[in-house]
Protein: DNA-directed RNA polymerases I, II, and III subunit RPABC1
Organism: Gigaspora margarita
Amino acid sequence: MVYETYNKITSEDEFMRMFRIYRTTHEMLKDRGYVVPEGFNTYNYFNRHCVRDGELVKELMMFQVQKEHYPGDRILVLFPDNKTIGINYMKDVCVRLRDLQIGKAIIVYPGTFTIQASKAVQSMNSTEESLYKVELFSERELVVNITHHEFVPKHIVLSTEEKRTLLRKYNIKETQLPRIQITDPISKYLGVKRGQVIKITRLSEVSGRYISYRICY
């Protein structure tokens, strides 16, 4: 089976690959505490809403979600079809965020970024005063949900209050906690910021359950 998309033939394997990316993106945001309605990440929904006349339309894959307890915390997810993302695309993203009154975006891209576009993203993410924050994921990073691997333990990001409670409980400073890099795939998946603490729960045949903590740097 094949699907025609933008004057090129897309194999069933490619179509299923994009569905897996779409599904993983929804799962990732749900794990971050965003509200993802049931059924939005199913194959039937994807086929119904992202395909037109047999063509997979990446523009239709775009979606936005909000935090469960903070409806003002919204994020827009985009799936550009461009193999190379340039500065003009980033300008379009900023306009779209402005019009939707959303401050955060995730771009799931198929190819590469130009130097100008990369610098624009770095600039937006470098200061707290920036109007928009943009996360970048290559499509290949999201084909498989890394947290579903049998050897990956459960990771949960602590709230600010939970972090304070942890430090008080063990009478330690945050500099004494083991570290996890902000570029670590799990940190990136969870959208962890520097200074946040991740609780890691491992199952052990000896102790049953082993809990550790790492601070993102």
Q: What stands out?
A: Residues 12-31 form the longest helix (20 residues).
